[in-house]
Amino acid sequence: MTSRRQFLAASAAATLAQAASLDTVRLGVTTDEIDDDVDTALRFHSEFGLKWCEMRNIWGKYNTAQPLDRIREAKGLLDKHAIKLSILGTGFFKIPLPPDNAEGRAILDNQWSLLDTAMERAKILGTERIRTFAFTYKDGALPDPKAYGRIWELVTESARRAKARGFRLAVENVGSSYVWSGAEAGRLLKHVKADNLGLTWDPNNAGQTGEKSFPEGYAALDPARIFHVHLRDFRKDASGKWEWCAVGEGVMDNLGQIRRLLKDGYKGNFTLETHYKSPQGKTHASRTSLTALLQVVERV
Fold first, then answer.
1. What band does 10 get if pLDDT is binned at 50, 70 and 90?
2. Which of 43, 98, 180, 224 has the largest CB neighbor count within 10 A?
3. Does domain 18-299 have CATH number 3.20.20.150?
4. How far, in whole angstroms, is CA 272 from its chain's centroid?
5. pTM, whole model, 2 decimals?
6. Between 68-80 and 102-125, two packed helices, what is the crossing angle to 10 degrees?
7. How many CA atoms lie within 13 A of 146 on its CB side?
8. Per-residue DSSP letters for 81-110?
9. Among 266, 237, 268, which Cα is nearest to 250's?
10. Residue 3: what pLDDT?
11. Where are the domains of the chain?
């Protein structure tokens, strides 16, 4: 009986420690990295005691491509599981910079409609944060230095439109984008002053540029303008190319990055964006990475 009482006490203490850690590090998972079915993904969150999530694809489509009745269904499931949406993932401005002509203006009109669609869905789902981008270029190409001025103007305009409706935009630094590294993300923040425009900081994406994303890339950022953070891990494969991997099996210093963010006053959310592929499927991949990441969080 003594051993059983000790075991139960230890289990209870571990549960309390994890709950306390998750109060400090508000962690969730991108739902479609678990399963495209929203209820299945949210049950996974509840299993781990997570109270937040990020949504991107739901039921096999980008949330912005789903009709409003499905968005309301997703909100009902969030309420059922007592989980809040930390940020709505969209593909806004994740396109090549359109030319400054009639054809390009038509493309931009579609993007402004996409932003309107995203804001409509974010309001229903209960979040003021929307993940966006800052234009892309072809894989293997180099960014056009002449494009930056126009990009700053368009991103500023997107922030203006979002602020008028009470939303904050969090530009993600992503591969083959004009905002990929920490240095490039810092440059964006210096040129776009809107207080409702910040970052979805992804140190793993930044690291794939060859930049030491933490601490060097992070040092180029204004922590007050980091609205959301993506976590996972990465490494080089046998051929020397970067690849995603399970948390703890790569080079990303997740513990150091999280500690520094909290020290710098960050009070936003963290999302595990699993990305790495497991032969046993994406739910297994997310379970493996989340289990390892929770161990990191307990050390914060």
1. very low
2. 180
3. yes
4. 8
5. 0.93
6. 30
7. 2
8. TT-EEEEEE--TT-SBPPPSSHHHHHHHHH
9. 237
10. 59
11. 18-299
